[in-house]
Amino acid sequence: MLIPYEEFTRRADAIRAQIAAACKAAGRKASAVELLAVTKTHPAAAADYAARYGLRRVGENRVQEGMEKRAQTSSEYAALQWELIGHLQTNKAKLAVQHFDRVQSVDSDKLLNHLGTFATERGKTLPILLQINAGNDPAKFGAEPADAARLLETALAKKGLRVDGLMTIAPLGATPAETAVHAQRTFANLRTLRDELAARFRVPLPELSMGMTGDLTHAIAAGSTIVRVGTALFGSRPAE
Ligand SMILES: *Cc1c(COP(=O)(O)O)cnc(C)c1O
């Protein structure tokens, strides 16, 4: 069940205030951080809410679910950008190129090859982020930090791809305090890695997609430019 739109607007206002406060504390402009609404598991109307409220991007973690919802979203909101944030299998790469505006979860050479080929076939430039396991979490997808330079080199050589930056998910801890420590460490690692790669390859890599409902303040302090928020906007999801 989706919450009523009025409740969504209250939640979105609160998250935007939290983002603005975190930016202020970090000496950054509030406009430096984009709020991406994570609509996974919620009905297509969740994406309509986000667009009606004025958000520009929604995130989905499954190709099929995202493309179905996109097809159901009101044509009034055709400018809404759909981003894939969940693990992508190579056999879905073609659909991902067709139906998403950006893929944040690129973590292998094989995937880069598939996405590059399909994007070139379509005469399209697909924006991507490289997903890095910057918190060394055994349970998470994402390339190892040590492989990031090789992946970036592969990606930069592909005409059909444009690398906007890096993405990560911080590991959860056993307690809120431990989770906070993991978040700070993970986000600082991603920021450092981005700075190193940008200098070494002389590319801007402007986007750092990091921070979710529970850790977005830490992410903004570390330089996040995209926070991916689901629970705080739409309420809790059924167990996945
Ligand atoms: C589900 C998901 C989110 C949103 O998480 P919340 O804790 O609900 O804000 C962010 N990023 C990724 C990759 C996700 O899969």
Characterise the protein shown here.
The chain is of the alpha/beta class. It has one domain (5-234): Alpha-Beta Barrel (TIM Barrel). Helices cover 44% and strands 16% of the residues. The protein has nine helices and eight strands. The protein has helices spanning 5-25, 45-53, 63-72, 93-99, 109-121, 148-156, 176-201, 216-221, 231-234, and strands spanning 34-38, 57-60, 81-84, 102-106, 126-131, 161-167, 207-209, 226-229. Strands 7-6-5-4-3-2-1-8 form an eight-stranded parallel beta sheet. α6 (148-156) links the parallel β5 (126-131) and β6. α4 (93-99) packs across α5 (109-121). It is globular, with a radius of gyration of 17 Å. The two termini are 15 Å apart. The model has no long low-confidence stretch (mean pLDDT 96). It binds pyridoxal-5'-phosphate. The site of pyridoxal-5'-phosphate has 14 residues, from β8 and α9.
Short descriptors:
240 residues, alpha/beta, 8-stranded parallel beta sheet, 8 strands, globular, binds pyridoxal-5'-phosphate
Which secondary structure elements does this structure contain, and how are they paired or packed?
Layout: H1 5-25, E1 34-38, H2 45-53, E2 57-60, H3 63-72, E3 81-84, H4 93-99, E4 102-106, H5 109-121, E5 126-131, H6 148-156, E6 161-167, H7 176-201, E7 207-209, H8 216-221, E8 226-229, H9 231-234
Parallel strand pairs: 1-2, 1-8, 2-3, 3-4, 4-5, 5-6, 6-7
Helix pairs in contact: 4-5
The structure holds pyridoxal-5'-phosphate (PLP).
The site of pyridoxal-5'-phosphate (PLP) has 14 residues, from β8 and α9.
